[in-house]
TrEMBL record:
It catalyses: Hydrolysis of proteins in presence of ATP. The gene is lon. Residues 1-43 are annotated as: Disordered. Pfam families: AAA, Lon_C, Lon_lid, LON_substr_bdg. SMART domains: AAA, LON. Residues 1-13, 21-40 have a biased composition (Basic and acidic residues). It comes from Halomonas colorata. Homohexamer. Organized in a ring with a central cavity. The active site is at S726, K769. This is Lon protease.
Length: 820
């Protein structure tokens, strides 16, 4: 390359200017010089009979280039500038274009080039930034004969193979006509090609099948390898065989796209037409006075809601004021939306709408007995409650608190009460509630303000006298957002809830017709003022017989129905069911029992499917295959000197509480306590030690026993926290048994608080403690005399077979325990 060439302006690419007058091209090319640029490019320059034997190669990667194509190409300037410089300096301006696959042209080897490519004439070269653009006019196929330069710029020696064709052959003419018809069929359904495609098509005829076939292949959207296969096929007849299916596939795709476009356009036109018609209809109706705008529609909607309601005068006055405000506000203003939402809530409430109570005691007993086994005392309390309401005329304004361990049926009893009364039921849990606004609502000044849960309940049940259950009331929380327990005082106080004020509604509501039912596990965390407003009904744990009935009548049928399992496919024996209750589910409620039964259903389903059985039998013998080893073994009552069984109450129900006293050594006097005892229980132990120490001789023990004895008193299950005064009598008995060297060799349990003077004070949880004793097969009990009434109120099935001794003073206890 000369120095003059090196000094040329690369940005303008003067050396690549397509100056047809200055190049040594054929006469055919010179004839195009005086035509317009567009005509010059669109007119196919006939192939020179003297195509060069050596040409530079340009790899392309999207799709191969065909001899029938005239198409602009864009290439990387930095990589191919030298190649295009050399092509521009040739008299023939011919370049070889070869398809190298779809992976790109960044890292190529000469082996990646195909043997067949297309020789093109280069027109209109220009450089822009990092790219070179030019128009390539396909001329003829070439075959690489020899590589002269295997590095860019690539230079090869080529031959131009002839394309065998018999244009007069009937089959060839038929294929040519089919291709022409296919192209014409593609024109109206794919406007992508336009007038230029028609211009090219007019130049081809069935007598030129080669260029026609190449052109048909070039306009398809087939993949690069398929098109390269067409390009490399030299016999025209065989090439036409390959191109015609590609063309038909292109027509089918174009037809599908056209159909989709027509459907979309039709839908858009229908929607636009409907929109315009609706707008016109609104205008016409408004002009005729038979239509209303959105504001008027809202006002009419709210007024229509109030027609069937008995709205208090003060509430109606507020609604009228808000309706007047709504009628003058713009519908797009924020205040319009706020006012509309406020009126929506006010008019959705059931002002004056009540349901008729079913104060039928027989119906109430039927519903309670159908839904619940056991709990006879609770059912009687509920029936008494309904009987009282029969004389009053209604049961509104009452607040019932159901207290009991988890899983004993508090929530389900609330539903049964609602069904027995024929009232609507609404439940929401207040456990963990920390914001008083959830009870009394947010003020309307806040964004996203909402009424409280009670107003939402009224909107859902659509009556003023529903049964509303406040679940887990003992788990209310407190935070900087307020105290929900204090907010509930107004709700649950019969003297205040007649004028309950929700902050969002800001009008008075009457809650006196509502029957509130609250549930709790313990009373300790319920504030005193709140607890004072409730009527308490205790639900104790179930004994084994009650659990058996519940499992047979409720839990097992419900599980089979829920899992769509026929009853005959799983045969659970009654003995196995008793073993499940005794060995796997000893808690006060029945939730754990339901989980274990569900586990049996799952295991049985696996057996039915995998072993292809008709029936699975679950008995005592194979129960461990389904549930594993029992979680609980038969509790063995501890015996020996200084060992006594006490009775304790927990939030999960009653439990037996063995207490052990032992003499460690006689070196010095001392008293040690273990078992993770609370402060109250430690005080009871010290009282028991002091009382025993002062009355040893009275109860026939050695008066000097504790003078040199270091005594250790332990309450087993040391990881479990224990507290309360009810173990005083039991601890005293354990110490006295140690001092008298006399063991208690019969099943006996006791409870009671002991004073320093020997008085036995009453304790709570008598029912739970009796149930715990029966569960451990202990049928002789010592209870405080003051708890006699609590024991007598227990149902007969709990007292059956139980011997109870009542004690006023500890001397009564000692007479029972250490009787001759």
């Amino acid at each position: 390359m000369s120095d003059q060439d090196n000094n040329r302006d690369h940005d303008n690419l003067d050396w690549l200017a397509d100056d047809e007058s200055s190049s040594h091209q054929s006469d055919d090319a010179s004839e195009n010089e005086h035509r317009s640029d567009g005509e010059k490019i669109n007119s196919l320059v006939p192939a020179s009979e003297m195509l060069p034997e050596r040409i530079y190669l340009l790899p392309i990667h999207n799709r191969p280039f065909f001899p029938a194509q005239v198409q602009p190409l864009v290439i990387n300037r930095e990589r191919w500038e030298e190649t295009m410089r050399r092509v521009g300096n040739t008299p023939h301006k011919t370049l070889g274009v070869a398809f190298v696959g779809e992976g790109g042209v960044e890292s190529l080897d000469h082996d990646d080039f195909p043997e067949i490519g297309t020789a093109v004439r280069v027109h209109k070269l220009k450089g822009e930034d990092q790219q070179i653009q030019f128009i390539a006019q396909g001329v003829q196929r070439f075959h690489i004969k020899r590589w002269l330069s295997k590095e860019p710029p690539y230079l090869v020696e080529v031959t131009y193979p002839k394309e065998p064709v018999d244009a007069e052959n009937e089959e060839t003419r038929a294929y040519a006509m089919a291709i022409i018809n296919g192209i014409k069929e593609l024109l109206p359904i794919n406007p992508l090609y336009g007038e230029e495609l028609k211009h090219y098509l007019n130049r081809f005829s069935p007598h030129q099948p080669g260029p026609l076939t190449d052109f048909a292949a070039a306009i398809t959207s087939a993949k690069g390898p398929e098109l390269q296969d067409v390009l490399a096929t030299l016999p025209v007849a065989e090439r036409m065989h390959k191109v015609l299916p590609l063309l038909r596939k292109e027509i089918e795709v174009a037809q599908l796209q056209s159909e989709i476009s027509e459907q979309v356009n039709a839908q858009m036109q229908d929607r636009q037409r409907e929109f315009f018609l609706r707008e016109q209809l609104k205008v016409i109706q408004r002009e005729l006075g038979i239509s209303k705008d959105d504001r008027e529609n809202d006002v009419d909607t709210f007024r229509n809601r109030l027609e069937s309601l008995v709205v208090p005068e003060r509430v109606q006055s507020r609604i009228d004021d808000e309706l007047n405000k709504l009628s003058v506000l713009e519908t797009g203003s924020p205040e319009y939306g706020t006012t509309r939402n406020y009126l929506d809530w006010l008019t959705c409430l059931p002002w004056g709408v009540t349901s008729q109570d079913k104060l039928d005691l027989g119906h109430a007993r039927e519903v309670l007995n159908r839904d619940h086994d056991g709990l006879q005392d609770v059912k009687e309390r509920i029936v008494e409650f309904l009987a009282e309401g029969t004389f009053k005329g209604d049961v509104g304004g009452s607040i019932v608190l159901l207290i009991g361990p988890p899983g004993v049926g508090k929530t389900s009893i609330g539903r049964s009460i609602a069904e027995a009364l024929g009232r609507e039921f609404y439940r929401f849990s207040v456990g963990g509630m920390r914001d008083e606004a959830e009870i009394k609502g947010h003020r309307r000044t806040y964004v996203g303000a909402m009424p409280g849960k009670l107003v939402q309940a009224f909107k859902e049940v659509e009556v003023e006298n529903p049964v509303i259950m406040l679940d887990e009331i003992d788990k209310l929380g407190q935070s900087f957002q307020g105290d929900p327990a204090s907010a509930l005082l107004e709700v649950l106080d019969p003297e205040q809830n007649i004028d309950f004020l929700d902050h969002y509604l800001d009008v008075r509501m009457d809650l006196s017709k509502v029957l509130f039912i609250c549930t709790a596990n313990t009373l300790d965390s319920i504030p005193g003022p709140l607890l004072d407003r409730m009527e308490q009904i205790r639900l104790s744990g179930y004994i084994a017989e009650e659990k058996l009935a519940i499992a047979k009548h409720h839990l097992w049928p419900k599980l089979l129905k829920r899992n769509n399992m026929p009853k005959k496919r799983i045969n659970l024996t009654e003995a196995a069911l008793k073993q499940v209750i005794e060995g796997y589910a000893r808690e006060a409620g029945v939730r754990q029992l339901e989980k274990q039964l569900h586990r049996i259903v799952r295991k049985a389903a696996v057996k039915l499917l995998e072993e292809e059985l008709e029936t699975v039998k679950v008995s005592v013998n194979n129960l461990e295959e389904f549930l594993g080893a029992p979680l609980f073994r038969k509790e063995k009552v501890l015996k020996g000197e200084g060992v006594v069984t006490g009775l304790a109450w927990t939030s999960m129900g009653g439990a037996t509480l063995p207490i052990e006293a032992g003499k460690i050594h006689s070196l010095d006097r001392g008293f040690k306590l273990t078992g993770k005892l609370g402060d109250v229980m430690k005080e009871s132990a010290n009282i028991a030690y002091s009382y025993t120490l002062g009355h040893l001789q009275e109860y026939g023990a050695d008066a000097d026993f504790f003078d040199s004895a270091f005594v250790h008193l332990h309450v087993p299950e040391g990881a479990t926290p224990k507290d309360g005064p009810s173990a005083g009598v039991t601890m005293t008995t354990a110490l006295l048994s140690l001092a008298k060297h006399e063991a208690i060799n019969r099943p006996l349990a006791m409870t009671g608080e002991l004073t320093l003077t020997g008085q036995v004070l009453p304790v709570g949880g008598i029912r739970e403690k009796v149930i715990a004793a029966r569960r451990s097969d202990i049928f002789e009990l010592i209870l405080p005399e003051a708890n006699r009434r609590d024991y007598e109120e227990l149902p007969e099935y709990l007292k059956d077979g139980v011997t109870v001794h009542f004690a006023n003073r500890y001397k009564d206890v000692a007479n029972v325990v250490f009787k001759d």
